[in-house]
Design goal:
The complex is a heterodimer of chains A (54) and B (133). Chain A has 54 residues and is of the alpha+beta class. Chain A is flat and about 45 Å long. The two termini of chain A are 19 Å apart. Chain A has one helix at 9-18, and one strand at residues 2-7. Chain B is of the alpha+beta class. Chain B folds into 2 domains: 1-34; 37-126, no CATH class. In chain B, strands 1, 2, 3, 4, 5 and 6 form a 6-stranded antiparallel β-sheet that branches. Classes of the chains: A alpha+beta (54), B alpha+beta (133). Strand 1 (2-7) of chain A pairs antiparallel with strand 1 of chain B, so a sheet runs across the interface.
Chain lengths: 54, 133
């Protein structure tokens, strides 16, 4: 059994700036957001996945 | 006084449910996504120790492949959880999955990102939620 505690600072700023109607994380109404300059754009390429021994 | 506060909160909750008040609902969703807090458990033992410097770099390594209960990924639930990472300060790699659809063999079901100076330069793409955390 383990414990999880994590703060996402980008989401904290997203919450605060959201009150000014600026959607920093681009996630309003979406399951997953993206940076404002990448909104509605496809990912350039898959993220490199290193082979970990565990 | 308590009645007034209760009514005000109930009114806000009702407004947030209306389509025209998606704005308030989105603020609530944003608030829920700030923190992950809960407990994990798994059938097999796993070890994970990681020190994170605001998501800019990390040191440590580990893997957790089990279930999570608490507030995670913007929702309060008991759900499938996967986390695997390696942190070498100058470069770190993380894989994180929430929910029943998570399959460690299918990278598209995981959030994956590289951090540390090398990770930020070489692999800048990441979702904002996992930019600084």
């Amino acid at each position: 059994m383990g414990l999880v505690f994590n703060i996402r600072f980008a989401e904290l700023f997203d919450f605060l700036m959201g009150w000014t109607t600026f959607d920093l994380c681009g996630d309003d109404g979406k399951k997953q957001g993206d940076w404002p300059w990448r909104k509605n754009k496809p990912r350039k390429k898959p993220v490199y996945r290193p082979k970990l021994p565990y | 006084m308590r009645q007034h506060v209760g009514r005000a909160l109930a009114m806000v909750a009702c407004l947030a449910c209306l389509p025209g008040c998606a704005y308030l609902r989105h603020r609530g969703e944003d608030a829920a996504e700030i923190v992950d807090l809960g407990a994990t458990w798994a059938k097999s033992p796993y070890v994970s120790a990681n020190a994170c410097l605001l998501g800019l770099a990390s040191v440590g390594a580990g893997k957790v492949n089990g279930r999570f209960v608490g507030l995670g990924d913007g929702r309060a639930a008991a759900m499938r959880h996967f986390h695997r990472n390696v942190g070498l300060l100058v470069w770190s790699y993380d894989e994180l999955g929430w929910g029943e659809g998570v399959d460690p063999e299918k990278p598209e079901t995981l959030e994956r990102y590289h951090i540390g100076p090398w990770g930020w330069l070489k692999y800048p793409e990441r979702r904002p939620a996992y930019a600084f955390g």
